[in-house]
Structures
1.
Amino acid sequence: MAATLSSEIKASLAWLLQDTQGLTTVADASRLEFAASLNNGSAAGQANALWHDLRTLAAGANDDLVLSALSHTLFGSAITTALTAVKGILIVNTATLSGEDLIVGAAAANAWSAPFGGAAHQARVPAGASLLLVNTATGWPVAAGVTDVLRIASQGAGVIDYKIAVVGLHA
């Protein structure tokens, strides 16, 4: 039986800004939303691979995820997902103490840097925060052994748990 994937990526930011001026209140209320559904396949707007995990990092440790060889256990079987492109990635830092930040990107070798602009570029995910990157059209390329290492580093003094989900295309 062939595996199929359907996924949905959503982000929303709503606001109500009010300013009282004399006898009146001026308000700005709106919402900015993003939503994409990816059906099974390998074309634009499609995905056929998913990998997710709950990970733990010791203080000052690095987690180098090889996107072309992500392993996990599913239904009691060991599975390796070999991504060739990333269409969406969500990283959630579950730490609650200020300073327990994750630094995403800038692996020492074979850095996956497509969404960051360069191999030395990084994004900081503070405690209690998340990072969502989405490119549903073509995805960001992953080249095995060349640009396939996503580094997630602990900048905190304690243990940091984080959640990660990656949707994309497999070989």
2.
Amino acid sequence: MKVKLAALGVGLLFGLGLLVAGMTDPAKVRAFLDITGHWDPSLALVMVGAIGVHGILRHVIVRRPTPVYRQSFSKPDRSKVGGHLLIGAAVFGVGWGLGGVCPGPGLVDAGALSPYALVFTLFMILGLYLTPEEPRDAPSSTT
């Protein structure tokens, strides 16, 4: 129960940060991507702030012997960049650029019952269900 409450608290804090920074407005995101027109650099400033906070907290957290709610820290098993990652990143980037919304702000806006964000979230969840849990190029564990 503590893990779920912690996850809820972190999610609410993240959503509040997106709201305060104005990053739930698709027009603001598209303005950041419009480098030849009316460019709005505020998204870059939000990213720099987030990276700074992450860097400081990561340095503090990894010095702990164990995480707060787990037995050990987990690290990705794979470091290889494959075709699925590149294709997924490209689709994500094109969708973000065209729609001006990505999963975090989309969920925040869906919570506010924005019709646009509700459709976005519906298709995001559909995509999650259609994606296999194990990458196709990973070795099968049933050999």
3.
Amino acid sequence: MQVVIDTNVLISALMAKTKTFEIIVFGDLDMHVPEYSLEEIERHKEELRERMHIPDDEFDLALDLILSHVTVVNREKYRLFESHAKKICPDQNDFPFFALALAMGTPLWSNDKRLKDQKEIIVYNTKDMANLLLD
């Protein structure tokens, strides 16, 4: 199954050995993130690292592990879908994820409940993803 992953999912996987981490690392998914996601993580890296109580090199190692299971997609691949994504996305900060999901014709994995408040993109939360993978 192909799926676009929101940054909040990546951060959840980074923060602890959670169901999210297990799904990303051990699940049978073809996962994609827009390059914007890496920019978001970089902007919050210091805050995340401090919350995790780990040094830079350990943070980078953990991020690399998670990203080794995810394809980072260049903005050029979904740029044409950004205008429509901005119209339908309930949270304007998340329109790049919607644009990529539209471009790929895939669902979005996000724990942001607001993103389900539209009818064009299927949005799964982590519980939904776990249930899909167990079926």
